[in-house]
Amino acid sequence: MPHRDVVSATAAIGALTRRGRHRDALAMFSRVLADGVAPNEFTFGTVLRSATVLRAPRVGAQLHACAAKLGLCSNVFVGSALLDHYAKMGAMREAQGALEDTREPNVVSNTALIAGLLKNGMFDEADRLFRRMPERNLISWNAMIGGCSQAGLSEDAVNLFLEMCREGVTPNESTFPCVLTSVANAGALGVGRSVHASAIKFLGKLDVYVGNSLVSFYARCGSLEESVLAFKRMKQKNVVSWNALICGYAQNGKGEEALNAYKTMRATGLKPNNVTLLGLLFGCNHAGLVDEGYALFKAAEREQPGILKPEHYACVVDLLSRAKRFDDAKKFLEDLPFEPGIGFWKALIGGCQIHWNRELAESVAERIHALDPKDTSSYILLSNVYSAAGSWQSVSRIRREIKEKGLKRITGCSWIEVQDKVHVFFNGDCRHPQSEEICAMLGACLYTREDDQHEQSTE
User: Fold this and answer.
1) DSSP conformation class of 32
2) Would you say 120 and 128 are in contact if contact means Cβ atoms under 8 Å apart?
3) β-strands 413-418, 421-426: how paired?
4) Counting Cβ atoms within 10 Å, is residue 150 exposed (0-12), middle (13-18) or buried (19+)?
5) Considering Cα of 332, then 335, then 338, then 342, what sign does the dihedral take?
6) What letter does residue 185 receive in the DSSP assignment?
7) What gap in Å lies between CA 127 and CA 80, rounded to an integer?
8) Taking a C-beta distance cutoff of 8 angstroms, is the pair 46, 84 a contact?
9) Where are the PPR repeats (predicted)?
């Protein structure tokens, strides 16, 4: 149909975009130009969404050139659309250029750039832009909190949440899942309880997304009773809710409870997904429910093969090897529908460590070294097997080999929450301000224990 003016042309392109017909929207934009109709800022804002969905950076660049030719790049609507497109394509230099070309960038423009910077790991740049913004709204705060949470910057995400509340910005349903994820990552149970109270204060009724986050948070912090209570209080539950409960039981060594929750979930008519199965296998693994876990895997293989991923197969290898069923584990590996990666062999060698199977551990270690000669963890696992078997010469040889090859071990880390403050400790790290007092207390405890053992032996 002929396009009489830019309004009808933009409406037609918008209709195609809303229906998901993005290639047709781009084709219509080209026809509009060929008809001599000059697009306006709304036309570009609409058609750039299609270029973004199709992940077509070259098309985006062509649209940018067209907008520049028409003198529209300084328009805040076009500038924001260009910026959003480039940010989602990972072209951050072009995104920053689009912001600079915008005559009067608004909170939407700045927030789009912040989201792009965070997604591409440019946290310092995102924070500087956030601090310079003349106006910050809830969306920009959520972008910062969510970006930090996804990047594992848990402490920064929580601090931003607290700062947002101090500035009088009211959080919404999108804020709390990100904050609760960060608090769970830090293992800060006390802080999480305060966030829970804030959610009730600001939101009143908690929706399914916040409820799911609470179930997962409490379970990950080891407070399984509160996790189950949060689940029971939810008015609406979806498969994610049940997954949070099942995985919570699994993480806390409650394999039987995870299986019972799964049966109840199936009775409600919900179908499991890949996360459900992974949680169940993990729970069965750590509770020693080998036959139950293997039966669940075989049932999924028959009924829902589409949900199976490599990590499920790796879980089965771990399940069998932990139960000392090494022949079954090796047969399972041989029958895999794909070539097993390093993770599968590590699962097998982990079982060797538990059951002191030195011969198999050496054979598996050779496979891992052939796949990745620089993989340190396999050397450590093999060293642990030798150590458990009392083969100290072999332990020394492995450690010497690690040193000669210049391989680095991942430093062990643990943390504990005391009076709402999380204290982090690394292996051999003495940077904690109370490290001397802590070592003295540990020494006193060990000394007392040795005395008790000596008294018992002399009685």
Assistant:
1) H
2) no
3) antiparallel
4) middle
5) positive
6) H
7) 19
8) no
9) 5-39, 106-136, 137-171, 238-272
Phi-psi region of 135 (alpha: psi -120 to 50; beta: other; left: phi over 0): beta
Tell me the backbone φ, ψ of residue 146, rounded to 5 degrees.
Answer: -65, -40
Let me know how long the chain is.
459
The dihedrals phi and psi of 222, each to the nearest 5 degrees, come to 85, 5
Residue linked to tokens 């179908």 = 271
CB atoms within 10 A of CB 126: 23
The residues spanned by each domain of the chain are 1-136, 143-236
DSSP string, 119-162: HTT-HHHHHHHHHH-S---HHHHHHHHHHHHHTT-HHHHHHHHH
Q: Among all chains, which residue has been given the structure tokens 């924070």?
A: 127
**Tokens linked to 192:** 């999480």
Where is 173: in which H helix or E strand?
A: none
pTM of the full structure: 0.76
Residue 447 identity: Y
Q: Using an 8 Å Cβ cutoff, are 372 and 345 in contact?
A: no
Contacts (Cβ under 8 Å, ≥6 apart) of 206 = 199, 200, 214, 234
How does DSSP classify residue 271? P
Place of tokens 């972008």: 143
- Through-space distance between the first and last CA atoms of the chain, rounded to whole angstroms: 102
- Alpha carbon distance 112, 95 (integer Å): 9
φ, ψ of residue 277 to 5 degrees: the values are -65, -40
Residue type, 208: V
Find out whether 71 and 103 touch, Cβ atoms under 8 Å.
no
Which amino acid type is present at position 35?
A: D
Q: Does domain 1-136 correspond to CATH entry 1.25.40.10?
A: yes
Amino acid at 5: D
| Phi-psi domain of 52 (left: phi exceeds 0; alpha: psi -120 through 50; beta: other) | alpha
